[in-house]
Amino acid sequence: MSLATTVDSGHPSAPPADDALPARLGLALEDFLRERPHAELAPELAEEVRALVLGGGKRVRPTFAWWGWRAAGGAPRGQAAETALRALVALELLQACALVHDDVMDRSTTRRGRPAAHRAFATRHRRARWAGDSRHYGDCAAILVGDLALAWADDALVGAGLDPAALRRAWRPWQAMRTEMMAGQHLDLVATARREESLEETLRVARFKTAAYTVERPLHLGAALADAPAALVEALRAFGRDVGVAFQLRDDLLGVFGDVAVTGKPVGDDLREGKRTPLVATALGLARAAGRERDVRLLRDCLGGPIDEETVARVRALLVELGAVAAIEERIGALTARGLQALEGVAVEPVARERLVRLAAEATARKY
């Protein structure tokens, strides 16, 4: 059964095309993954990509891209819409690449309620009593899983069936997004190595590591597919930059205070991993300004290496006491408001405008 006949049949009981977006994206992903040529050459890698992509996630990136498409007048149903959906599969595969590599870099143990790829491959190596170091094997295999997901992301965009003009338009934000994502990962790595404490620099990491490829460029990609005018593209990108950073700030708070059922990762992992986030940078700035040297030392010790559960609890309490959590909440609100303001004064398809406002709220709202 085709994607179109499954969710776009026009039957009175069928949900509206936009409301059926999660199901439509899921079917498009399944169709793409089912048809991968040469997957049998590396079945364990291919299966890990499939398990990660189909095993959860909120489809944030293709959802923003879809509303970029709709904002520029893209049709909610029909052949053009189905082709656009096939192209947007690329964003979930790009995200899979980022997640697998990020988990290796952060030494994360779980992802979406299952062992992270590097841990799963390390366990397989150890149980089979293969030669060499299990951890090294797991890291190497996970890198290849991420690389395969990235290669398939390109395949998804190029093979979606876009007409040549649409593919040329989409290729520019796609090129920028891939490079910005890698640059953001590197900025994050450098920030940790340099023991970065600057709020400005940690916000720059958030801008490129998350905002660009989570909200800004997906909106740009969707709008490009629909041949949006330059003014609308710029407005959507401005919206995406601010909402994307706010999204990352919310994620930082969830990484310290969130529910594992929401995040899919153990609470406090960002602290245990010494992540250089705007939240911690804000707390350091507040502690220094107040002359609280003991608290400055505690925060720096937290960032310096593995910490125990008692220290995690102390740092969590300190982040609240210093006012860092309140400051980040205020910044999230200001960024979200500024992002919404960017949509004013430009022609946005009315249904898309309403959905973008809703998505901004969902991406940045309090969840702990």
Automatic annotation (TrEMBL):
GO biological process per UniProt: isoprenoid biosynthetic process
Database matches in InterPro entries: Isoprenoid_synthase_dom_sf, Polyprenyl_synt, Polyprenyl_synt_CS
Cofactors demanded by this protein: Mg(2+)
Keyword Glycoprotein: no
Pfam families for this protein: polyprenyl_synt
Keywords: Magnesium, Metal-binding, Transferase
GO molecular function: metal ion binding; prenyltransferase activity
CDD domains in the cross-refs: Trans_IPPS_HT (cd00685)
Disordered as annotated region, ranges: 1-20
Family membership noted in the UniProt record: Belongs to the FPP/GGPP synthase family.
Name of this protein: Geranylgeranyl pyrophosphate synthase
Taxonomic path: Bacteria, Bacillati, Actinomycetota, Actinomycetes, Pseudonocardiales
